[in-house]
Amino acid sequence: MTFAKISQAAFYVPEQVVTNDDLAQIMDTSDEWISSRTGIKRRRISRSEATSDLATHVAEALLTKAELSASDIDFIIVATITPDALMPSTAAKVQANIGASGAFAFDLTAACSGFVFALATAEKLIGSGAYQRGLVIGAETLSKTVDWSDRSTAVLFGDGAGGVLLEAAQSPSFLAESLFTDGKRGASLTSNEQPLQSPFSDSSEADAFLRMDGRAIFDFAIRDVSGSIVNLLEKTGKTPDDIDYFLLHQANIRILDKMAKKIKAPREKFPANMMAYGNTSAASIPILLAECVENGIIKLDGSQTILLCGFGGGLTWGSLIVKI
Ligand code: ACO
């Protein structure tokens, strides 16, 4: 039987730092408002790098860390809601950029749950025995889809990318998963609607920008997402004590605080970095994971158990319990 394990993690963010004070120069907001409601202090915003450029940096870093060449990679999945284009996919561009000519590559769209959905998919690809190694990357340039005239959303998001190398292994490390979608509530978080525009179509309205019902999303995270984590722990006979770290999507510090309470786990087990990067959607969990590896909190030696949880547009949400 073949299993999959996470063997490396890496992240890359654009160089330009935009602070809350910088935003206050161009819109009616303040560091006090943004910090107190979201925890966010600054974010990275791309000047010229596309989503595929950010993802390519991550792919290269993963290969370097693992001392592998691009020809060792069987597949590349990029989770993103801000692809360079729908065609070719961002993953196909990464494949070309790193020269992984033997790898198949595709994008996966599940908003802020994208990385968790992609990792769950990749684990099955390797678990099938057909593939040995894959890159799973979350990458976003949300700055291009945010409405910069709407202060209620513009202050929340940032650009960045993170990812992991997934490799075949002898023993299981993906211990449990639960993935959900509720399309009926999709209207509470939308972006990049595409209008019908052929000469044969009725004219249709479409909003290109990211729009959000903040209150609805807040409640969704606290109620549905926390509940799904509690259920997954119960279903697998685990308690919060069995989890070393909960790596949750980095939307908002108040969401994180409340979710920790609902799950009844010590807040110290929930690392956070939205202060530095804002909400980077599909990139937020792998950036956090790679930072935790970099600063030694997560060791990647098979001795720890983590719970990864993404939640966002779709609505989508999902968790993985992984021995890492
Ligand atoms: N600066 C200053 N004032 C602002 C800003 C801003 N950037 N944005 C909104 N306001 C004002 C509003 O206009 C409103 O003013 P009013 O009372 O005069 O009408 C006031 O602040 C309160 O607005 P609310 O939207 O009620 O603010 P709230 O306290 O609910 O906080 C927030 C908004 C932070 C978005 C909150 O709803 C939230 O945390 N939601 C979770 C959603 C989230 O984080 N989404 C991220 C994307 S989704 C995801 O990743 C899953």
Automatic annotation (TrEMBL):
Chemical reaction(s) catalysed: malonyl-[ACP] + acetyl-CoA + H(+) = 3-oxobutanoyl-[ACP] + CO2 + CoA
Residues annotated as domain Beta-ketoacyl-[acyl-carrier-protein] synthase III C-terminal: 233-324
UniProt-listed GO biological process terms: fatty acid biosynthetic process
Pathway membership: Lipid metabolism; fatty acid biosynthesis
Subcellular localization(s) per the UniProt record: Cytoplasm
Pfam families linked to this entry: ACP_syn_III, ACP_syn_III_C
Cytoplasm as UniProt keyword: yes
Region (ACP-binding): 250-254
Active site, UniProt feature: C112, H249, N279
Annotated GO CC locations: cytoplasm
Keyword list, A-Z: Acyltransferase, Cytoplasm, Fatty acid biosynthesis, Fatty acid metabolism, Lipid biosynthesis, Lipid metabolism, Multifunctional enzyme, Transferase
HAMAP family: FabH
NCBIfam families xrefs: fabH (TIGR00747), PRK09352.1 (NF006829)
UniProt similarity note: Belongs to the thiolase-like superfamily. FabH family.
Domain notes for this protein: The last Arg residue of the ACP-binding site is essential for the weak association between ACP/AcpP and FabH.
Record note on quaternary structure: Homodimer.
Described purpose of this protein according to its UniProt entry: Catalyzes the condensation reaction of fatty acid synthesis by the addition to an acyl acceptor of two carbons from malonyl-ACP. Catalyzes the first condensation reaction which initiates fatty acid synthesis and may therefore play a role in governing the total rate of fatty acid production. Possesses both acetoacetyl-ACP synthase and acetyl transacylase activities. Its substrate specificity determines the biosynthesis of branched-chain and/or straight-chain of fatty acids.
Protein name: Beta-ketoacyl-[acyl-carrier-protein] synthase III
Gene source species: Streptococcus ferus
